[in-house]
Structures are given as structure tokens and as C-alpha cells.
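INFO batch 0412 | record 1 of 1 | parsing
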Amino acid sequence: MKKHYIILISIITIFFFTDCGKNREEKIIGKWEMAWMVANENPTYKIVWDITEDSKIIETTTKIDDGTTVVKNGTYKFERQAGVEYIRIYDLFDIKTFNGKYRILRLTKEVLSIEEREDNEGEYEFNHIEFIKID
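INFO prediction complete | emitting C-alpha cells
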């Protein structure tokens, strides 16, 4: 009887962790507006990332004073290493290069907080970005 409980608990645990991981990846899908952390950091631009199911990031940068808009397309890969979640970004640069490996610090229905750990060449970088979900 004890053997049946161990098997049942093992199956439930595997199902729970597999299912939760997929839900976490799905939470990142949507439109996210960058929240400037410092008032004078770059308040003349509104930056929105549209993160899609097919591993694309569409960045729309709008200059607030004249409405000029630039759209850039990049890709991403969702990664897990030792229980820590990352998003690796490729080919996304305009005013600033966003390419690199970012640790996901917080991911809810409303907030995405990421911190860059390295660029795509493996060099250490640091960049903390906060987003608010708009879609």
C-alpha cells in the first residue's frame, strides 16, 4: 500500500511541475510597456514589446513629442537553469541593444521584471527592466 502512495505522489509531483512551467512561459505572452525606473532616464520614448507564442518580440518605439514610430523584430528563447527562469533575446536593437540573457525576477499577469546577466557573446552585462502588461 505504501508503494502505491509513493507512486501516486511522484506522478502528481511530476504533473504539477510540468504544468506550472508551461503556464509560466504562457504568462510572458502579450504586450508589455516598458516602465522607466528613473524620471530622466529616457522619458521621451514609449517602448512596447509584443511577445508572441512563436518566439518573436516586436518592439515598437514611439517618440512621445512627435509620434515617430520605429518597429523592430527580434526573437526570444525561454530557458530554465537550476530552477531559475531566463529569457534570451536575439536581434532586438534600436535606441538601445536589448540582446542578451535576462533573469526573470518577477512575472505576474500585470508585471514583468527582468535583469540582464550577460550579452549574447557571454560577457557580463547589467540592465534592469520593468514592464507593465497592456494587453
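INFO post-check: The chain is about 20% helix and 45% strand.
INFO record closed
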